[in-house]
């Protein structure tokens, strides 16, 4: 009988550890989605201090609190406690104000791969300045400005599109997923960049990381390269695109550097 009770206790502990890890993961996604711990704490009716304990696994919520969270966000309880979710999952159920120009609250650093074959594997740094509808995108060299594009941007239901121009080099475009994690104040993420390449002004398309903080390219080279590379298990593919989970991964990376 004692052995049976011990075995049951071990099984229960294993279940608790698994559920607790998934709960903390999903709680962090909800905090990101709501913007701050304070916002989420207020929304689910607990103190900010208690929410911090949930987040650090120092405490686990009551069944009533879990039921309320699942009801509030229209999430199946089994899914919420057993499946690590992405922010895009919650986006289906949460109505929020339309992302507009106000989400861009500062200048942003940009990082993308050098296309010149002689400098292949290097990573460019640029600055994206946004003032109301006006946009200035500058590509930086070691001590000089390499290229500078100016223009504006538009917001659709799912995308934000930057239309930029330089009289010498022509057009450049940046297309980003309309943010879910950055919906009130844009922190950063990944987008598609189309511009004339360094080598001979032929057009190219690549990924670009946008960040509200400066990233040390040498120290974080491997991580930046991983996010900026296009990879595929097959040699031929019909198109390339950025998935929302990629945008969230880059957002999480930038948050760790804050």
TrEMBL record:
<dbReference type="InterPro" id="IPR001387">
    <property type="entry name" value="Cro/C1-type_HTH"/>
</dbReference>
<dbReference type="InterPro" id="IPR010982">
    <property type="entry name" value="Lambda_DNA-bd_dom_sf"/>
</dbReference>
<feature type="domain" description="HTH cro/C1-type">
    <location>
        <begin position="36"/>
        <end position="80"/>
    </location>
</feature>
<protein>
    <submittedName>
        <fullName>Helix-turn-helix domain-containing protein</fullName>
    </submittedName>
</protein>
